[in-house]
Sequence to fold (276 residues):
Amino acid sequence: MALSARDTETLVRLVQLTRDQEIDCDDCLQHVAELAEAVLAGRSDPEGLEAVRHHLALCTECNEEFRALKRALAASG
Amino acid sequence: MSRSNCRWLADLRGRGLPQHEALEALRHVLLRGLRGAIRGADEAFLEDVVQEAQLRILDRLEQFAGRSRFETWATAIAIRIAFDEMRRRRWADISLDSLLATGSNLLLQGEQAAAPERGAERSELVSLMYELIHHQLTAKQRTALMAELHGMPQGEIARHLGSNRNAVYKLTHDARKRLKRGLEAAGYRPLDIAAAFSP
Fold:
């Protein structure tokens, strides 16, 4: 299997987004509930959660869990 | 009637009937949340997730900062447990070795992968990326990064490396930083990269 152009682009995109300081998955989990509630309520991102947004752009798993949390909140009304 | 965050914390930290009732209420909250998050999930699987989530939530009560509803915070924890387990099952039969064998080929095939018809700039950038991956990263960083690039979840990479998800994130973060520094040292700026990958 050859590395697809898409895979290479993905890696370049991830590298471009990389910062010296990033939060990890546990830090993200600590704050993601607050972000999900704000998104569902149509509010702007709460102050101090930019690093969470950034982590979600880089971390496939946390992003998948964030989307699942939004579905859970939407379903429970 | 919904519970306040304070009451959740007080009852869950307590003992006896209040804690028992809070755990039962939490069980319903988590089940409802998981059913909404994972359509068509097996009920026995969800019950197992809830049991594990209750223990983890009790263990982490001190970490709840009160900046969201307690139910949302707790549901996020249950969702992580559920998705980690689903990923583990999905990747159970795939070894890191087989993925890495593919990864080694990928590194060797870097020159060919940079197809000329995709443009000289892009070809040069792709070749540089391969060079950096091969020479600037440690073996462990390369392993984690290539496995991640091939879709293996970080939790699964961690399981193979005898590590944990956070440590794998740190490993790939360090790898990305090295690649970024390598690109910058070679004179690439974000706009050049964007131009190289524009359609």
About this structure: The first helix of chain A runs from residue 5 to 17. Chain A touches chain B through 41 residues (CB under 8 Å). The mean pLDDT of chain A is 91. The two ends of chain A are 45 Å apart (CA to CA).
